Protein: DNA polymerase LigD, ligase domain-containing protein
Amino acid sequence: MARDAARSERSRVPAFIEPMLASQARKELPDDPRYASEWKWDGYQAVMRVATDGTMRLTSRNDKDFTGRLPILGDAMGDALEGRQAVLDGEIVALDDHGRPDFGLLQNYATSDDVSVAYFVFDVLLLGGQRLLDEPYERRRAVLEGIEVPDKNLVAITPSYSHADLSASGMSPADLLDVAKDRGLEGLVVKAIQSTYVPGRRSPEWIKHPLIQTIEVVVCGWR
Structure:
């Protein structure tokens, strides 16, 4: 019984943490050392929870369970974590033949064997039993970038570009947005480097700058 209890404990995934959301941009891209820039992916934001034995749960921000459909993502992340518990925030993305995100393909991935799906991780909320929610963004990013992912075709760490990184390359956030356009990406998300992770909140410290402006609506009825 003790052995069964220990096995059960190893397979216990951490509790779900409701993801933090980005606010819609109302001003121009900030060209400011207080912010870092990340790619904005066109997919499903989802929280991945991994137990010490590699058991994984993958849940969207709308509480949709993707675990059964994408078990291979958990296998890849479990290898990277080397027996550590983790809660990660990221985006499930389908890629076309040119490696560009395609939301239409993602909607059809369950019925097609030809769709390539990856999980792009952009935050770490818990690692090895250490809760990181109250740590600033730049500290969480340092922890995240310390995780060595063996198969980047399945799970990859979303790059983060600090103001210093861009300046050293002679670029501005606006230039990076042009790169996003050239790569067929959805835009940028800029994040305050001192921002903590606030579950379930649409934070003004994370600002999404999509190349195409959209709005979310609730359909109440039709004729």
Summary: DSSP finds six helices and eleven strands in the chain.
